[in-house]
Design goal:
Order of helices and strands: HHHHH
Largest sheet: none
Number of helices: 5
Distance between the termini: 14 Å
Radius of gyration: 16 Å
Shape: elongated
Number of strands: 0
Length: 117
């Protein structure tokens, strides 16, 4: 049986990045609740509550170790949608792409078995 023990430094790094990303997603979701006009530009005003709730649930799943792999997958899908919206709206994809990369970095830090064959 392979050793899947994660070092303390790796755990701390993963927790710090996961905490920062969760805070970012909560901030993003709060904007959807408090500033619906932001969603007007991308024609998603009617969907903002569902999108915000999905963002919060996904971020919470991502934060906690027992469910982080599900959160990683859900946030990856969410960020894929964000990248598509940025592409179709002639916006830069750098920010959503960087967030997506960080989501996967945490996923790999917390789940080293993902890198094995």
């Amino acid at each position: 049986m392979a050793n899947t023990e994660i070092s303390k430094a790796r755990k701390i790094t993963a927790w710090v990045i996961a905490g920062l990303l969760t805070a970012l997603y909560f901030f993003s979701a709060s904007g959807k609740f408090l500033h619906p006009e932001q969603m007007d530009a991308i024609h998603l005003t009617n969907w903002r509550i569902i999108i915000a709730l999905g963002e919060i649930v996904s971020a919470l799943l991502f934060l906690f170790p027992k469910t982080n792999i599900y959160g990683t997958l859900l946030l990856s899908s969410y960020m894929g949608g964000a990248i598509i919206l940025h592409m179709t709206g002639d916006l830069s994809i750098i920010a959503p792409s960087a967030v997506l990369i960080l989501v996967w970095v945490v996923g790999f830090l917390r789940n080293p078995e993902l890198l094995k064959k």
